[in-house]
Design goal:
- The structure holds two protein chains of two kinds.
- By secondary structure, chain A is mainly alpha-helical.
- Helices cover 77% and strands 1% of the residues of chain A.
- Chain A has 24 helices and two strands.
- In chain B, strands 1, 2, 3, 4, 5, 6, 7, 8, 9 and 10 form a ten-stranded mixed sheet that branches.
- Chain B is globular.
- The chains are: A mainly alpha, B alpha/beta.
Chain lengths: 550, 368
């Protein structure tokens, strides 16, 4: 009886989608599994030292960093999203897209740039000195926890802004207008209506930010902040103890997974999708006079700090070093490399995300949720640790495939996969699945199940429903997933450093090499190239997005 | 719906395309030696059959001068140099994991501790070359010749010329004394250079004294460690502290910076070589190791011979302000102006052995 029920249940739930999802999850999970099992092995003699000196403070610093950055990006992102979605003011149509530009700037480049600009020889202090002000050095010390929060907030808020804005523009019309009719003030609407309503959008945006912050190494290392990632690197490269480093990563993983499950649990019973079929888009209200000027000024200030000023500074430096740098590096090739890898990885990520997200929501059970969340854990793990997992996996694969290589007459070079771009691309897929996946998932959450269910009731299969009904409905979210993922990969650093094949450089690896050798002026040229590629893709997709909507 | 259908078609097209690209990349990589111009064609030839001469380098030095020297080597010998750049420890990990099959012939990095670590990991083999032995004095080579030095940099004390009389300066040990309280600047302990410095002091003075020294350094810090070596020099000029521990070649780079403000910084600081009366100034050695399973050993040795030759050594020093290991190489004017100095005479393996101890001590005393 039980067996029959089980068989029926398996039969009912097993289809091509589920199998594809499980396969995808396996690719993503294998290297992570290699890390996770280290919790069960016996710790070595270094572990007590690590626990005593590295864990407590470092975990605490990480927590502060994530909490402050999370709160700040949520506030800034939501505020901007609400301003743009609900109001009209001068230059708004410009800000609507320009406010996502900071995404194009890698935080480590921003950290180096601001670090220099505010340093003793930087433009700020030299200008002040030329006016005869010998300013207190402490005022300019950006290399601290608050400084890092500032950098992360200014250069990561677009994640929150983009997702929240898309949500507000399409979903919140009736709520906000009702609140207005009932005489609520703007601020009250923001706190009482907008914030609670956009919780799923905020959560998925802030989650991306939090993961980004947790696995960052460039910013925290240069600013001298001790985080969990620093502890992993110290253990690995200072104490040469990769076992303990992996164990740290495993605990890290465990915390992340429990946090995600907790969040899921907390909003278990609430499904945030419109209850009526008629979605009224939000009609923006015109601001006048001082409020309009304030809104414009605020957006302008954010844009200046997070994009115009640092890019302007990089342009000046690039003009100093362009001739030297352009001679030694072939920027066309670097750009071509960067774009090629990013395109391949982005396409794969989007396909995988759609498959798993669609399976997950159709199943709508613990298995579906576990599958979905497992896919996105890669984002929370420091790149270097993923790299080690992927590398081990590929070397094993190559050993297994050796007979095949021999039969093909490639005997001389048995490390076929591990020396190819495939390894780097798989690592990107693991690391950035969350960016694509969260966008797709929020798209699905927005449309709810009603269209899908109607289609199924009317006799379409899951695949047909997906292509005819679901996909057209989530295309906006797909597009934002593509932008976010592509730009992430263009900026990505540690994986590219560790896993790229011979003679293969990306713009990011070139920029970081200069910056980490304390040659920030030379780093300006490749940094600007990264920003240009990212910008071009943001603008292209913005344009496409407009066409898709209209 | 129409534009969307087009998009779906586009999606599938890109899938196909990417699958094709992946396949092409896979092929290409069977021949890391192959010319990159024509990936698909090159992929079909086995590297040995093509007969092209190559040497594969895993390098943790990422200076433009290195790329320039590799090009010169290719121009004069016809041997192509393939490079993967990365952080030293990560590269060692990679070579270990690739095992026997590693394509790496040479490993290049910038610290004696790491070079010794590569040796201890058993990934290197002795370099047998009379040319190299003639060009590089014994003190800059591993006792078993498993790695060969390329350049050195001194870990010097930099001081504010207007506030500090160089006669007040003497040794690294002295920087931990009360008189420098709140006046000392140094970067974080995550950096190899500080770890190796402490490792050398553990070797010379014993663990207890080294720990007391590290504690003294932390007590004397003018601020918590932040930024790189250049940032310490700027903090001295800005008046945050009076003295800083930093690497000599960064001073050279400041003095020749594109930013006139940085040049001014270099003019306001003095360079002091510590421990001249005692154990000598600590130096980092940058060097190259021959990988045990190297498949292009002859070419690899030729490259080492080239890099340690007088001409290449002069180039290293002129563009990067590092000290050449070849005594015949010329020093740039700036290095000559600082003069000759006595450096620490210690077995390089001491740095590798004591590195972990150093990191543990730094954690213990709270050196961030």
């Amino acid at each position: 009886m039980m067996l029959a029920r089980l068989r029926r249940s398996i039969h009912r739930h097993t289809n091509g989608w589920v199998i594809l999802s499980i396969l995808t999850a396996a690719i993503v999970l294998l290297p992570l599994l290699a890390i996770a099992v280290s919790i069960f092995s016996a710790p070595n003699e270094n572990w007590s030292h690590i626990r005593q000196y590295l864990l407590r403070d470092y975990v605490l610093q990480s927590v502060w960093l994530v909490l402050f950055t999370g709160a700040a990006t949520a506030a800034l992102g939501a505020l901007l999203a609400w301003l743009i979605a609900a109001y009209d003011f001068p230059w708004k149509s410009l800000f609507r897209w320009a406010l996502m530009l900071p995404l194009a700037v890698p935080p480590y480049i921003a950290a180096f740039t601001y670090g220099y600009m505010l340093s003793y020889t930087g433009v700020v202090q030299t200008t002040l000195r030329s006016w005869g002000w010998a300013a207190n050095q402490a005022w300019f010390d950006i290399m601290s926890l608050p400084g890092a929060v500032f950098i992360f907030t200014m250069f990561l808020y677009p994640y929150v802004y983009l997702i929240t804005r898309a949500f507000l523009e399409r979903q919140s019309g009736s709520y906000i207008e009702n609140a207005r009719l009932l005489g609520r003030s703007s601020w009250s609407i923001f706190f009482r209506v907008v914030l609670p309503l956009s919780r799923p959008a905020l959560v998925s945006g802030v989650t991306l930010v939090a993961f980004e912050v947790l696995s960052d190494y460039g910013v925290v290392n240069y600013y001298g902040i001790q985080t969990f990632t620093t502890a992993i690197f110290k253990t690995w490269f200072g104490m040469y103890d990769i076992d303990s480093a992996t164990r740290l990563a495993a605990w890290f993983l465990l915390c992340i997974v429990s946090l995600i499950l907790l969040e899921r649990f907390l909003r278990r019973r609430r499904r945030f999708s419109a209850t009526t079929g008629r979605l009224s888009p939000l009609a923006p209200q015109r601001l006048r006079g001082v409020t309009a000027a304030l809104a414009t000024l605020f957006c302008l200030a954010v844009l200046a700090v997070s994009f115009l000023v640092p890019v302007g500074q990089l342009l000046v430096w690039a003009s100093w070093t362009f001739d030297d740098v352009a001679v030694t590096a072939d920027f066309r090739l670097l750009t071509y490399n960067t774009v090629t890898v990013a395109v391949i990885a982005t396409v794969l990520i989007m396909i995988f995300s759609v498959i798993v997200a669609n399976t997950g929501r159709t199943l709508n059970n613990a298995f579906g949720i576990a599958l979905a969340k497992a896919m996105t854990t890669g984002y929370s793990i420091p790149g270097a640790i993923i790299a080690i997992g992927v590398m081990s996996l590929f070397i094993t694969l190559d050993e297994l495939l050796l007979p095949l290589y021999r039969s093909l007459g490639w005997g001389e070079a048995p490390l076929v996969l591990s020396l190819s771009l495939v390894m780097l691309i798989v690592a990107y897929v693991i690391r950035f699945m969350a960016t694509g996946y969260n966008a797709v998932e929020s798209g699905f959450e927005k449309i709810g199940m009603k269209y899908t269910e109607s289609s199924r009731l009317l006799g379409f299969g899951m695949t047909r429903t997906f292509f005819r009904v679901d996909l057209p409905l989530i295309r906006g979210s797909l597009l934002s997933g593509v932008i976010l993922t592509f730009v992430e990969i263009v900026k990505e650093l540690p994986l590219a450093m560790l896993l790229r094949p011979f003679n293969f450089d990306t713009l990011a690896t070139k920029a970081y090499q200069y910056a980490s050798d304390e040659r920030i002026f030379s780093a300006a040229v490749p940094s600007l190239a990264i920003i240009c590629v990212a910008l071009a893709s943001i603008l292209l997709f913005h344009h496409l997005g407009k066409r898709v909507r209209s | 719906m129409n534009p969307f259908k087009r998009k779906t078609a586009f999606l599938f097209l890109s899938m196909l395309l990417s699958a094709g690209m992946l396949a092409a990349c896979g092929n290409n990589s069977t021949a890391p030696a192959a010319e990159g111009n024509n990936p698909s064609a090159a992929g079909e030839q086995a590297p040995s059959a093509a007969g092209e001469q190559v040497v594969n380098v895993y390098s943790a030095r990422h200076y433009d001068v290195d790329a320039k020297l590799f090009e010169q080597f290719t121009a004069s010998t016809g041997i192509k140099v393939n490079v993967i750049e990365g952080q030293a420890n990560e590269l060692i990990e990679r070579i270990k994991r690739e095992g026997e099959n590693t394509p790496a012939d040479l490993f290049i990095t910038v610290d004696g501790g790491i070079l010794d670590r590569a040796k201890q990991e058993g990934i290197l083999q002795p370099v047998e070359s009379d040319v190299v032995n003639g060009q590089v004095p014994e003190q800059y080579r591993d006792p078993d010749n498993q790695w060969i030095g390329l350049t050195t940099r001194a870990r010097v004390i930099v001081y504010a010329k207007d506030r500090v009389n160089p006669t007040e300066l003497s040794t690294y040990e002295d920087l931990a004394s009360e008189k420098w309280k709140g006046k000392l600047l140094v970067r974080s302990s995550t950096h190899m250079y500080n770890q190796s410095l402490l490792a050398s002091l553990i070797h010379l003075n014993g663990e207890q004294q080294a720990e007391a020294w590290a504690q003294g350094i932390v007590n004397n810090m003018a601020r918590e460690p932040e930024g790189g070596d250049r940032d310490q020099a700027k903090a001295v000029v800005a008046g945050i502290g009076d003295v800083a521990i930093m690497n000599s070649y960064y001073v050279g780079q400041l003095a020749n910076s594109a930013d006139p403000e940085e040049v001014k910084v270099a003019e306001q600081i003095g360079v002091f070589f510590p421990n001249q009366e005692t154990t000598g100034t600590h130096i980092n050695i940058s060097g190259v190791g021959l990988i045990k399973s190297s498949k292009n050993k002859e070419n690899a040795v030729k490259l080492i011979e080239f890099l340690t030759g007088t001409e290449a050594q002069t180039t290293y020093s002129a563009s990067n302000y590092e000290y050449p290991v070849n005594p015949n190489a010329e020093w740039p004017e700036l290095l000559r102006s600082w003069g000759e100095f006595k450096h620490q005479q210690l077995d390089w393996s001491a740095l590798g052995e004591n590195n972990q101890k150093a990191v543990e001590i730094m954690n213990k005393v709270g050196w961030k």
